Amino acid sequence: MAVWYLIIANPVLNVLVALTHLLGGSFVLSIIALTVIVRLFSSPLTKRQLNSTKAMQEMQPKIQELQKKYGKNQQKLQQEMMKLYKEAGINPLGCIWPMLIQLPIWIALYQAIMSALASTPESLLGLAQRLYSWDIVNQAIPLSSKFLWLDLGQPDPYLILAIIVGGTMWVQQKMTTAPAVDARQQSTNRMMTLLMPLMFGFLTLMFPSGLALYWAVSNIIGIITQYFVTGGWGYLRPRSPSPSK
Amino acid sequence: MVLLEVAGWQPRGYGDVIPSLKVAMTQYLSFTMKQAKILLLIVIFLLPLTLASCAPWGGSQSAGGWAGTVVYEGTVYVGTLDGRVVAINSSTENLEWAYSIAPITAPSGGLSCGETSIPTAIYGTPIVDEGIVYIGTYSGQVLALSMLARGQNLTFPQRGYGEWEWACPINNARSNAIVADLLLSGDTIYVSSSNGRVYSLDKEFGDLNWESKVLNERHIKLWTSPIIQDNALYISTYDGHIYALSLETGDLLSWYFESDAGFASSPVIYEDAMFLGSFDRYLYAVNISSSIPMWKFPEEKPAGNWFWAPPVTKGGIVYAGCLNGGLYAVEAKTGENLWEFNAGSPIVASPVLMANMLIVVDESGTVYVFDLNTELGNEAVPLMTVSIDAAVKSSFCAQEGLIYIRGDDNQLYVVDIDVGGIIWKIDLSIEE
What we know:
The structure holds two protein chains of two kinds. Chain A is mostly helical. Helix content of chain A is 72%, strand content 2%. Chain A has a two-stranded antiparallel ribbon with strand order 1-2. In chain A, strand 1 (146-147) and strand 2 (150-151) form a beta hairpin. In chain A, helix 1 packs across helix 2 (27-41), helix 1 (2-22) packs across helix 5 (96-117) and helix 5 crosses helix 6. Chain B is mainly beta. Helices cover 11% and strands 38% of the residues of chain B. In chain B, the strands form nine sheets. A four-stranded antiparallel beta sheet of chain B has the order 1-2-3-4. In chain B, strands 7-8-9-10 form a four-stranded antiparallel beta sheet. In chain B, strands 11-12-13-14 form a four-stranded antiparallel beta sheet, with no helix packed on it.
């Protein structure tokens, strides 16, 4: 646990507090800035993932052909598709890394929000032991948790943030999930595309709105990046089948 | 999203090292794809919920509190970790009475959608006056407990015995919790609340005399205690102000002091100066007449942490404990550092003066006693050191050579300075 605090939790907390001071005492702007920083750090991996998505997109006609050809022989289909991916130089595992990087950040951010806002006397006292001796950090304490109708240390009492988180996640997912020809696969994809945004929307109702804000901003940045890297809305706007020559 | 893509990825090309392994892997992945997706969903769903409901990660609520001790006519009064106010006879070392404060009902958190009952935390030190024990609670109540009525275990409140309870209004704030010590002056009790207001209550009946406006819109909670000097009530705030309120009406007076950083501690007054710690890791001295800062300590670079506890003053010297473990003796007029001592563990509770002795307890539970009659030099050496083997954040008191400390383990420790050790202790969770 000490290592966790030393390497991840405390740096995230201190950066968050320092950013708050630099951004005129706005904790919300600090969360947004931290999200941008995290996305920048993970951008090489994200770019790799998006390039894979783009390549997937371009390979879609070939994949559909394979699915039609070997639809009844799953084993053969898997082998052929694997061969196709290998030829195209796509690593299916490449897309895990941005997620793996973000997961500890989520946890650290959740802890940082709860600590930094110091909603109990214990958490305020505990904060003293976790802050670096930078003037910029200590002058920012304590932080204001108010933003519009939100108390950033508490869940959004209305559905607004949940809808934003769920909606942006759905758009981002829809942009990257390739359509399947196989009916079973298609229905699974549809279910998954709906389940994740619903689940995160539900989590937004339970978690501090500061963390939900991070999810929302992260999704929006993801959508924008994806739009520019893949050159469009991806699978969000289904392509009309190209005329056969 | 990304994880979804992983789960929904149709081909999986892990096994191109050995051809047979590749085929086996493909078959396996194809077979377990559905289960993997379900498992993935469960993991994603459960992980944050587990974090939210797991105490070490900061999500759960517990009673907590660092209630201080007070001794009055041979009885020790203190709030406990299980939400009670107890009276312990210091001669017999027995529980005289205990009063359980109504617990707080709160959402369970985590996977449970129900509610849970949490003992009410107590952070303040009780005030004892004319047979009544006054205490503020984290549930936003001020209680006046009669020693007589509680000794007979009568239903609370017994008006005939002078008992009352007052519920602090929330007033559109998130909380009405009372964290700071109450202040008793004459016939009035002054209360600072997490809703950002100061309240004046009649000591006898608990009636509200006045309430101030919200002093601190940005960092609303008031967890610092007020102090009185020359017909004005002074209170420090987390947004870096010290305000003066009228004792009669609670209106803001023209006097105020403003600092760049918020104030971490309640102010202490000595002669015409006010001393208090700030989140910028300095101890400030402010001249009350002119509201001009006299000095800040340390003079050059800030201390290693906050001066969290209010300092104590005696003979023109300010004694301040710091969360960096330092104890500093500072000349009240000039801010000159007379001597210092490093306890090695944060000093959360205010130092206490008893005759010519200065007593400090650090968070690790080590008690240091300094003899102020002897020349302490630049780096003071304590007269004696006693370890009570429990963390200490609570205020403590000392009387007739005995130090009464409530540990974070919910035990009351009594240290005898003459003996140089603990002479008795009692578990505060005991029933009558």
